Structure of GlmZ(SRNA)-inactivating NTPase:
Amino acid sequence: MLRVVFLTGISGSGKSVALRTLEDAGYNCVDNLPVRFLHDFIAAARDDGLQRVGVSIDARSSSGAIQSLPETITALRALGAEIRLVFLDADTGTLVQRYSESRRRHPLTDKLFREGVAPSVEACIAHERELLGPLRELGHVIDTTGLTPSQLRSWIRNVVQADSTPLVLTFESFAFKEGVPLDADLVFDVRCLPNPHYDPVLRPLTGRDAPVANFLAAIPNVGRMIEDISSFIRTWLPEYLHDTRSYLTVAIGCTGGTHRSVYVVEQLAAMFAGRGQVLVRHRAQKQFDLYDPGDIPPQSRPRHSGS
């Protein structure tokens, strides 16, 4: 079966790095292919016997063509292609800084100038977010704020290597002091739980280490929190599937993103390991893994009931 990865997102968020990563993984890649040519290009790739194709799509395509992409993807799947869409994003401050450092012009600068709008970088980014909004809802969103190119390459490899399943479910830990990640669909706050940070022995460890896991597992409210979150997800996950959603990111936040949120994410990932493809992302640790129960030390595995 032909596997197709569409890369899109906000300019400056790392699409060039992601596209090169696909090339290194054996994908035949095309940058900035207009949406109206997608069907013919993918059909030709299938007829030529290609197995992996990567296509970068950005805001330089017309807004009408971008809005028609959902119908185009449906038609491509009818050809027998496996489609995966990855949307890269970053916060506006990070994007502005990247443009300042690279001294490159935003690709929508001329477009805004022709429309009589002062083409500041901030204005271009805001306009691009509006144009690409429909695509963001279709794909697996990765917030590249704070990521190095090597970290982004690792995250892209894990996303495209995930099995083809009805739903890719990502559990992500983060630090509230760094802000809520842009790629989160559901956000849960676990800062009300006891914090291992205040124990000098546990402070340098993470929620994946046995001493921290044992400390948190012994607290009844931690188990109750995990059960409540898992119950919410179990209840509403079918509705997300009925909404034809292919990706769902559940973000768990604590103060530093190191202990409580990491532990809760690991427990939830283990509980939902049998429900499609499960990814685990720890933003504070810059980790993004395909979940495998065998990777988790026995002391860190779930102590709470759930599916």
The longest strand covers residues 82-89. The mean pLDDT is 86. Strands lie at 3-9, 28-30, 52-56, 82-89, 140-143, 168-175, 186-189, 247-254, 277-282, 287-290. DSSP finds eleven helices and ten strands in the chain.
